[in-house]
Design a protein that fits this description.
Blueprint: H1 7-13, H2 26-41, H3 45-52, E1 57-62, E2 65-70, H4 88-98, E3 102-105, E4 112-115, E5 121-124, E6 139-143, E7 152-156, H5 160-169, H6 174-182, H7 194-198
Parallel strand pairs: 2-3, 3-5
Antiparallel strand pairs: 1-2, 4-5, 6-7
């Protein structure tokens, strides 16, 4: 299976002091640092070497359509592309500058997609490592199938209660555990635009 590097992968591979998540609020950065330090302590040299070899992006053409897969955006690994904050004009320019008809990204943790008037498409695939702040315990991924004009967003059910118990055993913050059990974000909320935050619980 082919994959690309995200901001965590790059930070761990290069032994950086933080996750490079792109947060600006002290509260967001506080919890992000706790998460990163936990992961950093448990990442082996061999794993860092593997992460170092991951490409920052993948390009391919299918059916005459050019695709670009990236983590945050074509511009930055940690850029947040929020549905409410991205105008059609901005996305069309991004696609044009990236020389792609479809961009598939992630980083925000909330899945969404938009097809533009010029035929371009932006797909934010969501995240399999964290619920989408929607009150559901499943995580999400995007599937682009042959002949499919839009991405299909599919939920991933898993033993979330088992994970929550493991997190408690590891003495991770109760805020992290609550998100796993409820599907509502309790941390890293300040980065959310008003419309995305209004859909959540907190």
């Amino acid at each position: 299976m082919t994959t690309i590097a995200g901001n965590y992968d790059e930070s761990l591979a290069h032994r950086r002091p933080d996750c490079g998540c792109g947060y600006t609020h002290p509260s967001d950065n506080f919890f992000a640092q706790l998460s990163y330090e936990y992961t950093n302590r448990r990442t082996t040299d061999a794993e860092r070497g593997w992460l170092l070899k991951l490409p920052p992006a993948i390009r391919f053409t299918r059916g005459g359509r050019r695709y670009l897969l990236c983590h945050g955006s074509p511009r930055r690994t940690n850029e947040f592309l929020w549905e409410s904050a991205c105008s059609d004009a901005f996305l069309m320019r991004m696609l044009r500058e990236a020389e792609a008809e479809t961009i598939v990204c992630a980083h925000t943790g909330i899945h969404w997609q938009r097809t533009l008037a010029d035929g371009g498409m932006l797909v934010n695939a969501g995240a399999v490592g964290r619920p989408a702040n929607d009150g559901r315990t499943e995580t999400w991924y995007a599937l682009l199938g042959a002949g499919r004009e839009e991405a299909g967003f599919l939920p991933v059910a898993y033993d979330f209660e088992g994970l929550a118990r493991e997190m408690e055993e590891e003495a991770l913050p109760p805020e992290f555990v609550e998100t796993i059990r409820t599907g509502w974000w309790t941390t890293c909320l300040e980065i959310l635009p008003a419309k995305e935050r209004a859909r959540g619980k907190f």
